[in-house]
Amino acid sequence: MLKSLLCTAAASVLMVSCGLDYDGSTKNVLTGTVTNENGTPMANIPVTVNYYNGSIEENTGFDHTDAAGHFTVIVPKGKDAIPKVYVNMPDFNYNPIGYSWVTYHNIDTGKFTDYSYDMGTVKLCPADANKLVTLHINAPASVTKLNAIGTVMRNSIDLDFNIYSGDQVFTTLPYKYYYYDRSADFTVLKNQIITLKYLDANETTHEVQIPVENQNLTYTIQ
């Protein structure tokens, strides 16, 4: 069944250029479901898969969610690059007005099962000021990467801190890092538990649970 699916690759549009090196005989399948904050499936949400090797990024696959919120993107296997998945990236043609977006990067292809990877459920939230609060993170200088995993308005989630660990990605104290501003703000949906995942200078990963209620809050990493 999967072999047939890989051969037809009908659900995705493949756009491969010459910048990165690909294994043309092997395909990877990325699947998942997109819902709103209440768990209702969202249709016609764009999902784009790019490959990134630390310096070059290329678009390799694309799909829209169906009526049940499901997406399937079939892409060639990158020889020297790792997939990034963009869900509902801001675009005048596709992005539902007032909804969040999320990027998943550093997806370890070694964790694929039978050439497939299930992204699980991706929850998007409305840009409604009455439903959102600010989560402010204060971090010591020893923190090198930072993810807020949950229902966040604009988010970029590193799925494997052990890959490209020296690369300053969007959520690792973003551009502010270069000004030595050791803080980050996330606009998050009210009434949820955010998982704060961070990496220290010793390459040790930490996770803490932060309950978010109905008001802005600040969390300080000790």
- Number of DSSP E strands: 14
**Poorly predicted tracts of residues:** 1-17, 164-180
How many individual helices?
Answer: 1
> Largest sheet, order of strands side by side?
3-2-5-6-10
Distance between the termini: 50 Å
Mean pLDDT rating: 81
Helix content: under 10%
What composes the largest sheet? 5 strands, mixed
Secondary-structure element pattern, one letter each: HEEEEEEEEEEEEEE
Structural Rg: 18 Å
- Strand residue percentage: over 45%
* Helix-strand category: mainly beta
Q: Assign an overall shape.
A: globular
How would you describe this protein?
It is built from 1 helix and 14 strands. It has 222 residues and is mostly beta strands. The strands form 4 sheets. It has a 5-stranded mixed β-sheet, with no helix packed on it. β2 (46-52) and β3 (57-64) form a beta hairpin. The longest helix has 7 residues, at 2-8. The model is unreliable at 1-17 and 164-180 (pLDDT under 50).
Summarize the structure.
With 222 residues, this protein is mostly beta strands.
List the helices and strands and how they pair.
Layout: H1 2-8, E1 22-35, E2 46-52, E3 57-64, E4 70-78, E5 82-87, E6 101-105, E7 116-123, E8 132-138, E9 143-149, E10 154-158, E11 183-189, E12 192-200, E13 205-212, E14 217-220
Parallel strand pairs: 1-7, 6-10, 8-14
Antiparallel strand pairs: 1-4, 2-3, 2-5, 5-6, 8-11, 9-12, 12-13
Q: What are the salient characteristics of this protein?
A:
222 residues; mainly beta; five-stranded mixed beta sheet; three-stranded mixed beta sheet; 14 strands
